[in-house]
Amino acid sequence: MLSPSKTRQATALALLLFCAACSTGDVVAPPHEQAGGSESGIGRLDPSHAFYYPADMLPVEDGRVLAETSIGEVREGQLRRYQAGRGAAGSLDDLIFDLLLVAECRERGLGAAAPLLARSAAAQRYLASGRKQESSGDRKQQRKFANDALRNNRIDALVRADRKIPEPAIRALFERRYGPGGRRLLLCQIFLSFKSSAEQLRAMGKPSDRAAAKIFTAARAEAICQQLQAGESFTSLLSESDHAATRAALADPETVASAGQLWDTELQRLGSRVTGAFPELDIGEVSGLLESRVGIHLFQVLRVKSTDFDEVEEQIQRELLHGPASESEVRDLRRSLARKYSQRVLR
Fold first, then answer.
1. Domain coordinates in residue numbering, the chain
2. Less CB within 10 Å around the terminal CB: N or C of the chain?
3. Are the C-beta atoms of 208 and 201 separated by less than 8 Å?
4. What is the pLDDT of residue 188?
């Protein structure tokens, strides 16, 4: 975790570089980072502006041509610099891709601030990793972070420029976030874990295989239902829950009032057998016993919150438009650039 001083340093650096990048429409690297210049923490920016490589790397001859593209040749020396900067990730195909990213961004006037923002992102990521400066291994790691960010900044710029978000995608995120039809339920949960039941059985010297644990868990759940039917309140039985967060909340006077609470949209990982039980419940009602692969759940509805799609549609669309590129979008971009810029690998 970052200390307050390190957080301020990283934030200040990010703001400084971002403001510098946005102050002009044609942003270039600063003098110390111009192609062939040096930067102590990261290295040199290759003449292509496609990657950083070690500042102390001895000069290498361009050597033989490894590939030809419609934007120029790729030579052996450049690949060596690339591999020194990216390590095991430095294949010829990836170098060509990074070169094509630079060419496409320049042609479309996108990603001009990529080197500046990559350095900022690398600094923040490095500080967040908890590493201490300043060994050669640290510089190598910072350079890796910067090269990752350099590529991702350009990918994101190109993908976002062409991205179109269909309404079904907006609707799908709306349903995941705000519930079916915009209806979310605040629930209180008692969770009985098969694993915890098995541990209790072992402590009693009894068989604790999965079948035995499931039978014992069902018996515990039935006992809770009987107590509810006898007039016990749901919250008074939360101490029976095996959920670690619930037990921790119960032990803290500041969080005891919210112990066991969660939104129904947080339960999608448990499957439709669990999530499908809530639409018919009203405030104060308790679900039946619901079994998932990890245990048995019992819920009480505390509150219903409704959200209108029209109120949040624009916000969701912005999020989807400006989100990072997905793996499928990156694959599509690689194919698109390969078609646009002819290339021939000679080795």
1. 4-162+325-345, 181-306
2. N
3. yes
4. 95
